[in-house]
């Protein structure tokens, strides 16, 4: 009896290559925005070297104290403030600042402002407020149907019930939904939301955040959410970029940055949240004048790590005071601009 033939050797399989990361929808590269100083003073460097990418369907939170440059950065990404250095690209093409090109660009990228009461003309009905963008851009379709669809997407249903109302007849949450509908009516690919829930009651904030997440899921919408609230970033964002004095000082996936912050500034911002362990970190003084950015790490004058001696023990105190840090890349990997964090330390001794 003959033995059965040996099975043919199974050829080794080559693992499928990892898909290349998607190119960003919106990208800032080495972006700088400065403004003339008063009475011959040095120019104020509001945005002083920023790389930032936003991919399709991604929500990025840009966080930091008031005055750190985040709103100027957002306005520059929208084409409202031309950069003094670097560039903005959208869908692979550099942003063109001619009037005609910007009009086409703003059909694809829309702004949602912080204060819905200030964003809406009190003399205009809800219908006119939402239809305004269609009229500016010469929409040739059924205007009434487009307005109704936008209001429905924003959670105002049935939409016809709101057509003839005025802003003063609406609640704060309803007004913010009208503002969002006005942005959605043009079917943008990306929205820039500047403190979208800061003026709303706590009970309404969750509804607006849930709405933004639903719009991302249903429409594939990308978003840059500008906020000082790290709790909001945790609830809505895929990635977070922490900004201080014109630069991004820490960035990465939101869960990674907010559960294991490496930059002392991020640690201080997180320490004041109600659920944060330990005592809050109270930063001394105000952020420096953007026309007189300090040498070295721009946070060093307020840094609790340097003040507490941790940077000295790690051997980086002189670098903190005198050695500038590079601009962080705009992609999705975890990055931090901090001499102390670069030593591998992320938590001060004794905490």
Automatic annotation (TrEMBL):
<dbReference type="InterPro" id="IPR013563">
    <property type="entry name" value="Oligopep_ABC_C"/>
</dbReference>
<comment type="similarity">
    <text>Belongs to the ABC transporter superfamily.</text>
</comment>
<dbReference type="Pfam" id="PF08352">
    <property type="entry name" value="oligo_HPY"/>
</dbReference>
<protein>
    <submittedName>
        <fullName>ATP-binding cassette domain-containing protein</fullName>
    </submittedName>
</protein>
<feature type="compositionally biased region" description="Pro residues">
    <location>
        <begin position="1"/>
        <end position="22"/>
    </location>
</feature>
<dbReference type="Pfam" id="PF00005">
    <property type="entry name" value="ABC_tran"/>
</dbReference>
<keyword id="KW-0813">Transport</keyword>
<dbReference type="InterPro" id="IPR003593">
    <property type="entry name" value="AAA+_ATPase"/>
</dbReference>
<keyword id="KW-0547">Nucleotide-binding</keyword>
<dbReference type="InterPro" id="IPR027417">
    <property type="entry name" value="P-loop_NTPase"/>
</dbReference>
<dbReference type="GO" id="GO:0016887">
    <property type="term" value="F:ATP hydrolysis activity"/>
</dbReference>
<dbReference type="InterPro" id="IPR017871">
    <property type="entry name" value="ABC_transporter-like_CS"/>
</dbReference>
<feature type="domain" description="ABC transporter">
    <location>
        <begin position="26"/>
        <end position="270"/>
    </location>
</feature>
<keyword id="KW-0067">ATP-binding</keyword>
<dbReference type="GO" id="GO:0055085">
    <property type="term" value="P:transmembrane transport"/>
</dbReference>
<dbReference type="GO" id="GO:0005524">
    <property type="term" value="F:ATP binding"/>
</dbReference>
<dbReference type="GO" id="GO:0015833">
    <property type="term" value="P:peptide transport"/>
</dbReference>
<dbReference type="InterPro" id="IPR003439">
    <property type="entry name" value="ABC_transporter-like_ATP-bd"/>
</dbReference>
<dbReference type="InterPro" id="IPR050319">
    <property type="entry name" value="ABC_transp_ATP-bind"/>
</dbReference>
<feature type="region of interest" description="Disordered">
    <location>
        <begin position="1"/>
        <end position="25"/>
    </location>
</feature>
């Amino acid at each position: 009896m003959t033995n059965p033939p040996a099975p043919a050797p199974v050829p080794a399989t080559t693992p499928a290559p990892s898909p290349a990361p998607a190119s960003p929808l919106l990208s800032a590269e080495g972006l700088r925005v400065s403004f003339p100083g008063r009475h011959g003073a040095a120019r104020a460097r509001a945005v002083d070297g920023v790389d930032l990418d936003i991919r399709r369907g991604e929500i990025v939170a840009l966080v930091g104290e008031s005055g750190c440059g985040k709103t100027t950065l957002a306005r520059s990404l929208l084409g409202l403030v031309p950069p003094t250095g670097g560039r903005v690209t959208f869908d692979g093409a550099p942003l063109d600042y001619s009037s005609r090109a910007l009009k086409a660009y703003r059909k694809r990228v829309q702004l949602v402002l912080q204060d819905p009461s200030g964003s809406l003309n009190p003399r205009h009905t809800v219908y006119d407020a939402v239809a305004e963008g269609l009229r500016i851009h010469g929409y040739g379709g059924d205007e009434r149907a487009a307005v109704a669809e936008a209001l429905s997407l924003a959670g105002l249903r049935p939409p016809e019930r709101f057509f003839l109302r005025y802003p003063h007849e609406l609640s704060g949450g309803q007004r913010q939904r009208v503002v969002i509908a006005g942005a959605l009516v043009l079917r943008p690919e990306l929205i820039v939301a500047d403190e979208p829930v800061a003026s709303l009651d706590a009970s309404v904030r969750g509804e607006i955040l849930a709405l933004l997440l639903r719009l991302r899921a249903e429409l594939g919408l990308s978003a840059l959410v500008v906020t000082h609230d790290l709790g909001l970033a945790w609830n809505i964002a895929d990635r977070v970029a922490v900004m201080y004095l014109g630069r991004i000082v820490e960035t990465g996936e939101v869960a990674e940055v907010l559960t294991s912050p490496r930059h002392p500034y991020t640690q201080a911002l997180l320490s004041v949240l109600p659920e944060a362990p330990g005592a809050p970190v109270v930063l001394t003084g105000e952020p420096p004048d953007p026309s007189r950015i300090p040498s070295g790490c721009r946070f060093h004058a307020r840094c609790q790590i340097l003040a507490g001696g941790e940077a000295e023990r790690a051997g980086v105190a002189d670098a903190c005071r005198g050695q500038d840090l590079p601009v962080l890349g705009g992609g999705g990997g975890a990055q931090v601009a901090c001499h102390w964090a670069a030593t591998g330390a992320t938590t001060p001794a004794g905490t």
